[in-house]
Amino acid sequence: xxxxxxxxxxxxxxxxxxxxxxxxxxxxxxxxxxxxxxxxxxxxxxxxxxxxxxxxxxxxxxxxxxxxxxxxxxxxxxxxxxxxxxxxxxxxxxxxxxx
Length: 99
Ligand SMILES: [Zn+2]
What we know:
By secondary structure, the chain is mostly helical. The protein is 64% helix and 6% strand.
């Protein structure tokens, strides 16, 4: 976050664009994320398998709460800095995620 505050001192437009890119990238990664085994930490290979070879169960690497918390943090920055586009983008993502 220190990095963003530094950027803010120089270029607000650059900061908003950087944050927008992060939001979009995080959102894409969140939806594409692999499932990992809770027991051996192996990434799920077959999409049909309910359980890992070690008999452990799978879980998403990042849970929805964690994801929403990060988005909320960026939304707060957007509101505070009056980054309209960034605010709309994160609000939309949060709305989709919570519904
Ligand atoms: Zn396993």
